[in-house]
């Protein structure tokens, strides 16, 4: 002990010099990080300018026919027009809200059903074996076609869109929840049982939290599918919604409005992704930081 | 009633067979019989793959024997045995729960309120020297600290039987010695029966009252030795130099070595040996 302390003793002068040297190293590292970040942003902006500028120039010189493919300035004015003058089916906000409602309800119903069925089948070999083939069959059919059936059965209100979105979401979440339950650590499971946990307690304390990593990972792509379900439903037949705006613009040979609606949708999806990411951070806060995050913390 | 509550383990003529994926029947253990008295510390040693973990699984009720019976406190094991706790080589802590919540699981599963469970968990964390670490997650602890958490989690329900499957197998030598001493200290306080699996003979002799030596696969009981070293044993590092320890250690090693060599020859010698054995 005493030898260790003498060997690490340094004079104050040494310590100050070491401190200066360390802060110089830290500053150099910080500058390198900043330079790298600036280069990345320059690359990103440059790429966008290249693509949009190329498209615009191509359209103006008629290399790309703007009648079919639109042009960025046209998309921008279509976007402004949508927000300023609204559409034949009410203001653009109303239409966004309708589509969002359908997607959100579909997402909620599909996700909850997917988790419940996935966790149940994941825990029961018997049920999994009974329903396995049917799930495979239903998964193999192109489910988007169900949209037509739902429209025929339930009319052109919001219900068929919600159902279509829910069906699309259900399968993604279901497969992930099922797999997540199957991957639960056997030792942990045995330990909980030996400690006297009931079936319900095992599910609550061990299985669901353990499967949560898988379930949340599936929610990211699931929300995109919920939007797809709502839009396809609206294209098939609706009174309001972004899908209807797209379909109407298509009938009017107005590609710029189609692109404008696409832009709105991608912003909606990005916002939803952001919310899901926050949820993920909150629910999975126990996880060790990923290596990249950890090195950023220095 | 008093009899049903004690932790006497009676393993009588137990055979366990598994169906291998290729459809063959594989006998993991064959006609195993031994008894662990209440409050006794019993170590089981044997080459890897001889069926030690399989035996534990049947005492805990996680698995059923193909033949023979396992009795705990005079009652045939059927379903999860009441009053047992487990400790594995790998961590069985829930990574998404804090240290406190992990230790509190035992009482919560038994129906205690959250406040009461946490109060008891706090007390147990203090006993294993982890006061102040209640809010950490398992991945924020060292291997030795995680073992202490697992120990507190296993002991909090005051089990009449503690089963340990190579609990310190993944630790470095120094940490292992420290953990062994702490285990003995905690065990002296409440004296559950212990079934302790290890492949480290020194560890078995230093800790146990009784050492069961198993043969290589299919596992049977080859010999049972009583360890008459006085208790409390004190430091497990120091006991290794006592003449009686060395005498017992040599005696048991002579029995065990043959089995370890046979098991090794089987894995190193390839499938021909396996075929002959089957
Ligand atoms: N569920 C199982 N199915 C098939 N074989 C198994 C199963 N569990 C264990 N075994 C086999 O039984 C033998 C004994 O295993 P185990 O009890 O884990 O040995 P030990 O703990 O002594 O190393 C091994 O050969 C193992 O492959
Ligand atoms: Mg084992």
Automatic annotation (TrEMBL), chain A:
<keyword id="KW-0813">Transport</keyword>
<dbReference type="Pfam" id="PF00528">
    <property type="entry name" value="BPD_transp_1"/>
</dbReference>
<feature type="transmembrane region" description="Helical">
    <location>
        <begin position="162"/>
        <end position="181"/>
    </location>
</feature>
<feature type="transmembrane region" description="Helical">
    <location>
        <begin position="134"/>
        <end position="156"/>
    </location>
</feature>
<keyword id="KW-0812">Transmembrane</keyword>
<dbReference type="InterPro" id="IPR035906">
    <property type="entry name" value="MetI-like_sf"/>
</dbReference>
<keyword id="KW-1003">Cell membrane</keyword>
<keyword id="KW-0472">Membrane</keyword>
<feature type="transmembrane region" description="Helical">
    <location>
        <begin position="38"/>
        <end position="55"/>
    </location>
</feature>
<feature type="transmembrane region" description="Helical">
    <location>
        <begin position="258"/>
        <end position="276"/>
    </location>
</feature>
<dbReference type="GO" id="GO:0055085">
    <property type="term" value="P:transmembrane transport"/>
</dbReference>
<protein>
    <submittedName>
        <fullName>ABC transporter permease</fullName>
    </submittedName>
</protein>
<dbReference type="InterPro" id="IPR000515">
    <property type="entry name" value="MetI-like"/>
</dbReference>
<feature type="domain" description="ABC transmembrane type-1">
    <location>
        <begin position="96"/>
        <end position="276"/>
    </location>
</feature>
<feature type="transmembrane region" description="Helical">
    <location>
        <begin position="103"/>
        <end position="122"/>
    </location>
</feature>
<dbReference type="GO" id="GO:0005886">
    <property type="term" value="C:plasma membrane"/>
</dbReference>
<keyword id="KW-1133">Transmembrane helix</keyword>
<comment type="similarity">
    <text>Belongs to the binding-protein-dependent transport system permease family.</text>
</comment>
From TrEMBL, chain B:
<dbReference type="InterPro" id="IPR017871">
    <property type="entry name" value="ABC_transporter-like_CS"/>
</dbReference>
<dbReference type="GO" id="GO:0005524">
    <property type="term" value="F:ATP binding"/>
</dbReference>
<dbReference type="GO" id="GO:0016887">
    <property type="term" value="F:ATP hydrolysis activity"/>
</dbReference>
<dbReference type="InterPro" id="IPR003439">
    <property type="entry name" value="ABC_transporter-like_ATP-bd"/>
</dbReference>
<protein>
    <submittedName>
        <fullName>ABC transporter ATP-binding protein</fullName>
    </submittedName>
</protein>
<feature type="domain" description="ABC transporter">
    <location>
        <begin position="9"/>
        <end position="241"/>
    </location>
</feature>
<dbReference type="InterPro" id="IPR003593">
    <property type="entry name" value="AAA+_ATPase"/>
</dbReference>
<dbReference type="InterPro" id="IPR050166">
    <property type="entry name" value="ABC_transporter_ATP-bind"/>
</dbReference>
<keyword id="KW-0547">Nucleotide-binding</keyword>
<keyword id="KW-0813">Transport</keyword>
<dbReference type="Pfam" id="PF00005">
    <property type="entry name" value="ABC_tran"/>
</dbReference>
<dbReference type="InterPro" id="IPR027417">
    <property type="entry name" value="P-loop_NTPase"/>
</dbReference>
<keyword id="KW-0067">ATP-binding</keyword>
């Amino acid at each position: 002990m005493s030898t260790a302390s003498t060997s690490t003793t340094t004079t104050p002068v040494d310590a100050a010099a070491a401190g200066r040297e360390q802060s110089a190293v830290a500053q150099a590292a910080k500058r390198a990080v900043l330079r790298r970040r600036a280069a990345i942003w320059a690359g990103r902006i440059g790429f966008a300018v290249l693509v949009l500028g190329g498209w615009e120039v191509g359209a103006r010189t008629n290399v790309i026919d703007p009648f079919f493919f639109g042009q960025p300035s046209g998309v921008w004015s279509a976007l402004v027009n949508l927000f300023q003058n609204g559409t034949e089916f009410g203001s653009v906000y109303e239409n966004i809200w309708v589509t969002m409602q359908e997607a959100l309800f579909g997402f909620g119903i599909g996700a909850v059903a997917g988790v419940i069925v996935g966790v149940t089948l994941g825990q029961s070999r018997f049920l999994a074996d009974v329903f396995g083939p049917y799930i495979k069959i239903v998964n193999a059919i192109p489910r988007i076609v169900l949209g037509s059936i739902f429209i025929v059965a339930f009319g052109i209100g919001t219900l068929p869109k919600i159902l279509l979105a829910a069906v699309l979401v259900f399968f993604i979440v279901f497969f992930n929840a099922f797999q997540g339950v199957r991957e639960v650590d056997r030792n942990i499971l045995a330990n909980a049982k030996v400690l006297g946990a009931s079936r319900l307690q095992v599910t609550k304390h061990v299985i669901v939290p353990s499967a949560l990593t898988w379930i949340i990972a599936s929610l990211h792509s699931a929300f995109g599918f919920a939007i797809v379900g709502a839009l396809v439903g609206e294209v098939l037949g609706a009174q309001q919604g972004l899908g209807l705006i797209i379909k109407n613009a298509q009938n009017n040979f107005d590609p710029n409005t189609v692109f404008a609606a696409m832009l709105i949708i991608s912003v909606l999806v990005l916002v939803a992704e952001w919310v899901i990411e926050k949820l993920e951070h909150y629910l999975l806060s126990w996880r060790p930081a990923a290596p990249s995050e950890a090195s950023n913390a220095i | 009633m008093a009899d049903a509550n004690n932790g006497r383990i009676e393993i009588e003529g137990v055979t366990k067979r598994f169906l291998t994926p290729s459809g063959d029947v594989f006998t993991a253990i064959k006609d195993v019989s031994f008894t662990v008295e209440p409050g006794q510390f019993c170590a089981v040693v044997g080459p890897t793959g001889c069926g030690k973990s399989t035996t534990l699984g049947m005492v805990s009720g996680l698995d059923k024997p193909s033949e023979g019976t396992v009795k705990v406190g005079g009652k045939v094991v059927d379903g999860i045995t009441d009053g047992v706790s487990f400790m594995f080589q790998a961590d069985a802590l829930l990574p998404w729960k804090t240290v406190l919540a992990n230790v509190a699981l035992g009482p919560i599963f038994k129906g205690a309120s959250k406040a009461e469970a946490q109060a008891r968990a706090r007390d147990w964390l203090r006993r294993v020297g982890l006061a102040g670490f209640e809010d950490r997650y398992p991945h924020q602890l060292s291997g030795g600290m995680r073992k202490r958490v697992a120990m507190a989690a296993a002991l909090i329900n005051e089990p009449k039987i503690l089963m340990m499957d190579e609990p310190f197998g993944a630790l470095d030598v120094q940490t292992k010695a420290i953990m062994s001493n702490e285990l003995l200290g905690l065990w002296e306080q409440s004296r559950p029966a212990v079934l302790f699996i290890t492949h480290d003979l020194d560890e078995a002799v230093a800790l146990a009252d009784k050492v069961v030596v198993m043969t290589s696969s299919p596992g049977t009981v080859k010999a049972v030795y009583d360890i008459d070293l006085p208790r409390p044993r004190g430091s497990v590092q120091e006991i290794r130099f006592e003449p009686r320890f060395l005498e017992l250690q040599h005696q048991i090693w002579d029995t065990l070595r043959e089995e370890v060599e046979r098991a090794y020859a089987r894995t190193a010698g390839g499938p021909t040996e396996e075929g002959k054995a089957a």
